[in-house]
Amino acid sequence: CGLCFRHQQVNQTKSLYELYNRFFPFCLYRITKSYNKKLHDTKKDLFSSVSQFKPSGKQLTLLEIGCGTGANFQFFPPGCKVVCTDPNPFFEKYLTKTMEENGHLSYDRFVVASGEDLSSVEDESVDVVACTLVLCSVRDTPQTLREAQRVLRPGGAFFFLEHVISDKETSWTYFCQHVLQPFWYYFGNGCEMTRATWKHLQNAGFSELKLEHFQAPLIFLIKPHIMGYAIK
């Protein structure tokens, strides 16, 4: 009957989605190695400022939104306690391996959660929130930034590194980003090349924002990047 057929289709879709979620961490683990190699100095420079947000006499607590395979762990300061969040539960296996390779950190826990809903994390409970190559794929960027501010203590900082839409609307890159976006979205786990993420950061209500536009040494579609940090 038609109802049985639709039920079967739903089950097949769920199975395919779970298979994709299992396969994506495997792909990302290899992609991030290449990304880290090309932007090693950039990440090192960005996260060198994290230590200044360590509370006096206390351990620095850092929460990472969309931690993925733990590509940023090597850049976090020694002694830092890391809370990892990601909506994909199949990243945990890779996280465990990466954490073992980064003994300078203290691993707190892994929370399966999207950036828009960090309800399992208490208000004002972390010193730093890190978010790299994540705001391009969250469903609600302003809500993700509100959640980051909620979990940050007063004076804490939100660190970011994101690829964005070209700020030159007449450029070839800008044109191709829009034309190829539908394809990129489905094969990039919901990633969007056409987001002007810096505008959301400017409107998020942080007390201070340090933001830099730069061209990353990557394919032209994702060369435009922003990096920096915002203080609550």
Q: Could you characterize the architecture of this molecule?
A:
- One of its GO terms (molecular function) is S-adenosylmethionine-dependent methyltransferase activity.
- InterPro entries: Methyltransf_11 (IPR013216), SAM-dependent_MTases_sf (IPR029063), Thiol_S-MT (IPR052356).
- The protein is an alpha/beta fold and 232 residues long.
- It has six helices and seven strands; from the N terminus they run ααββαββαβααββ.
- The chain has helices spanning 2-38, 40-47, 92-100, 141-151, 172-187, 197-202; strands at 61-65, 81-86, 106-112, 126-132, 152-163, 208-215, 224-231.
- Strand 6 (208-215) and strand 7 (224-231) form a beta hairpin.
- The radius of gyration is 18 Å and the shape is globular.
- It starts with a helix and ends with a strand.
- The model is unreliable at 3-14 (pLDDT under 50).
Low-confidence stretches: 3-14
Proportion of beta-strand residues: 15-25%
| Oligomer description | single chain
Helix fraction bin: 25-40%
**Roughly how many Å apart are the termini?**
57 Å
Secondary-structure content class: alpha/beta
If you average the pLDDT, what whole number results?
Answer: 89
Q: Strands of the biggest beta sheet: in what spatial order?
A: 3-2-1-4-5-7-6
Outline? globular
Q: How many strand units?
A: 7
Rg calc = 18 Å
Number of helical elements: 6
Secondary-structure element series: HHEEHEEHEHHEE
Describe the main β-sheet briefly.
Answer: 7 strands, mixed
